[in-house]
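Dear support,

Our group has been running a series of protein-ligand predictions, and this particular one with N,N,N-trimethyl-histidine is the one our PI (initials K.S.) wants archived with full inputs and outputs. We had some confusion internally about which version of the output was final, so please treat the block below as the authoritative record. The input we submitted was:
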Amino acid sequence: MPQAPTQPLRTPHFVQVYREDQAALRRELTDGLLQAQPHCSPKFLYDALGSRLFEAITELPEYYPTRTEAGIFAAHGQAMAEAVPAGATLVDLGAGNCNKAAALFGRFQPARYVAVDISVEFLRGALECLQRQHPALEMWGLGVDFSAGLNLPTEIAQAASGPRLLFYPGSSIGNFTPEAALGFLRSVHAACGTAQGSGLLIGVDLVKDAATLEAAYDDALGVTAAFNLNLLLHLNHLLGADFQLPDWRHLASYDTSLHRIEMHLQARRSLTVNWQDESGQQRQRRFMAGQTLHTENSCKWTLEGFATLLQRAGFHSLQHWTDEARRFAVFWARA
Ligand code: AVJ
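Confirmed final output from the archive:
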């Protein structure tokens, strides 16, 4: 009987840095809830249900960013492939299901793929499947919280010899205030390393009329409202809190001077929320009717403003591609 050809058995490597710390989460949430303007980090929007609701958002007619960005990659993928280094280590920030990066493997011909997300458990299934389709590509799954700055663990930095292609699509940079975005991009610049040709390929949502933006964050089907309200279910779970969803309304408004969409949850009546802090102690916060919990900022950039930001972070030789309506942009910036 003929022998089946033996395949080199390559399997993805996994590194989990982030450790979920229940006490730290409760402390962070308690602190936010007790501020004069109560707030909560947008990372708490993404529990299992929230992640699925976000996927549904990307299919809404009003939510243009995801499909506009995909159109830019489809139209200008060849030009991007000519700009980025070949044989690079492709570092995918917020990789999730890895679909956006995997769609670029053919054109960009990376030597190594590093998928970064908060938990390697999200990445495991996707990477094991991708490894079978791309047996020659070295793959790493890295579980790390990079929201306070990107830091590649030494074992990955050592493996990533040659040029690095940092990839941050989806305009998630919009969750950072301009000042925090600068700090974050400086850490990305450092993570590009010192090899020639390295750089950052990043998607950014552009300033536009308030009506288009507000519709994108307050859709007619109410999916974004459900996405925002689901945060309260997540807080009930994490804190043992007693948020009642019918008491809260989804708000999304564009601040034209700060160039950002703000999402809030607004109390429909005066009410009190109770929860347990990190030491199990009972805490409460009173909300007056109309008072809000601030849940997300989504900052919008002009082409000029974002180019300046990239340069201040240390990048140079910028290129960008946009759609015809200039709703969204993809920048390539050398480190
Ligand atoms: C995932 C941060 C890019 O700001 O557009 C979508 C999140 N919030 N609808 C965005 C989001 C409400 C999204 N990002």
